[in-house]
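seq as requested:
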Amino acid sequence: MLPVCYDPYVGTLGRFSREEIFELVARAGYDGINVPVKEAFLGKLSSEGIDEVRGLAERHNLQVPTVGFGWHIATDPKLRSEALKHFELVLEAALKLNAGIIDIWPNQPKGVSKEEALETLKANLSEMIPAADEHGVKIALEFEKGCPLDNYREGIEFIRSTDPRLKLTCDTYHLFNDRADPYRAVLAMGDMLGDVHVSGSHRGEPGTGEFDFDSFAKGLREIGFRGPLVVQYRLEDVSSVERSCRFTRRLREMILGSV
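struct tokens:
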């Protein structure tokens, strides 16, 4: 319930080995870790690579509530077959790692209109959703300024017009850049909200910057949110990994009404 997890984002990948990342995350006190299905983290894009990650998670007693699609091609009309083939590996990773959510960031491909990108995403999801749903796995879409799903409002409308089994990934950084009211945004997303990415308003350490975490937590408490809280920010100071965990655990207490 409300696991606090770490995402090996910018400043982590490439700076530390995969084994070092698991050790860092476990030592900092996190409940789990997000696993991006890409070579930079998984190593081999294969069943063997997934098994190696599963072994590391078990060794460090870390959950894997979410896996990232990793390869940002789900909106590219020229790469539909590649996207669907990659999804097979992503779903295998979710099942082997006992992840309940597959996160997809719908990026804006060069030379493709927003409308084409969204139609491609819908076409891909029409095949991905039934396969994921068969195993009880949800697909969550992340919104971001300048992307096909520019904000949470477009995310809600896309789900309503596509498939109610879809969820949204709400990133506090993207919500801040949209100048959205955190409390009202959360209430509007309601049970469409699958997971939360926790970041500072400038993509730095959570708890720094201007984002209103108090009203955000109030909204999450009112909708009964129980999904993963995934810390995702640009790592500069290694000691911030532990501070970010403490901050997000405090956020969890606020959501649960413990404080």
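The CA atoms of residues 129 and 222 lie 28 Å apart.
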